[in-house]
Design a protein that fits this description.
It is a single chain. The chain has helices at about 1-20, 55-60, 65-70, 85-90, 120-125, 140-145, 160-165, 205-210, 235-240, and strands at about 35-40, 50-55, 100-105, 105, 190, 200-205. The chain is mainly α and about 270 residues long. It has 2 domains: about 30-145, Cytochrome C3; about 180-265, Cytochrome C3 (Alpha-Beta Complex).
């Protein structure tokens, strides 16, 4: 009987060790790396390094709606399936990176081209930079030095930076975007949590529409536009659904509970 008990205990301990070893703890990315996307649908097949896309510099200049609605970028990495021919035809990255558009008084470099240039390899490396020591045009620390800070994600409070005029978001691209009348944003409202003692969530349509408009969230992420039409849980959000579509990848992460769970609307 004692031998059987010892065997059972050893099996249980062994299983516990195995479970502990298979547990995966994700390493928190550095501020400059948060939101970084690696695109490799076709790159390595063509003998190029995968494309590294830094969200932070793009979100500092453009709205999320402009890229994910007007330019039709998918919300998941690799979901768009961009090819060099698409860029050269003026789609996706090529909508801006075509060598003719200018922002902040500077011409945007061409993303893909059939024209031979003096240092074509270096030109390709500006995007196809995965695993390479490529000098970036914008230095994260210098660019964000005077922007309001927060604890998680990029360490930058982008919402406040836009609100204070530190950054100006472009939401219209000539020749691509359609001029539309702005809708009146709904007032902030509270969402009650199911866990006792957890402060209510304050959701602001006004702050979200600055970056997302309405089309980015409705109807693909949140079905319907009526309050309470979509039911969801924190488990689903942590699984990358609903709020978790953005607030686990690009917008401030779910670690920052107090950014959402604040207090009842006054």
């Amino acid at each position: 009987m004692r031998k059987i008990l010892v065997v059972v205990l050893l099996v249980m301990v062994g299983a516990g060790v195995t479970m502990a070893q298979t547990g995966i703890k994700k390493k928190r990315p550095l501020p400059a790396d948060y939101g970084r996307v690696v695109m490799n649908n076709f790159s390595e097949k063509k003998g190029l390094a995968p494309v590294v896309f830094d969200h932070w510099i793009h979100r500092a200049k453009f709205s999320c709606r402009l890229c994910h609605v007007d330019l039709a970028f998918a919300m998941k990495a690799g979901g768009t399936g961009i090819k060099a021919a698409d860029n050269m035809s003026g789609y996706y990255c090529g909508s801006c990176h075509n060598g003719t558009r200018s922002f902040d008084g500077e011409k945007v470099f061409t993303s893909c081209s059939t024209l031979a240039v003096a240092d074509s390899a270096k030109q390709c490396d500006r995007c196809h930079s995965y695993g390479k020591n490529v000098r970036k045009e914008y230095d994260f620390i210098k660019f964000t030095r005077d922007l309001p800070k927060e604890r998680f994600g990029n360490g930058i409070n982008w919402e406040k930076a836009e609100e204070d005029g530190k950054i100006k978001i472009i939401d219209f691209l000539e020749g691509v975007s359609i001029k539309r009348q702005s809708l009146t944003a709904q007032k902030d409202f509270a969402l009650s949590g199911k866990v006792a003692g957890m402060p209510e969530i304050i959701f602001s349509h006004k702050k979200h529409t600055v970056w997302n408009g309405c089309e980015l969230c409705h109807p693909e992420i949140f079905v319907g536009v009526k309050k309470g039409a979509t039911k969801y849980s924190m488990v689903e959000i942590f699984d990358g659904k609903y709020c978790g579509v953005c607030h686990s990848t690009v917008a401030f992460p779910l670690l920052d509970c107090q950014r959402c769970h604040t207090k009842p609307v006054q």
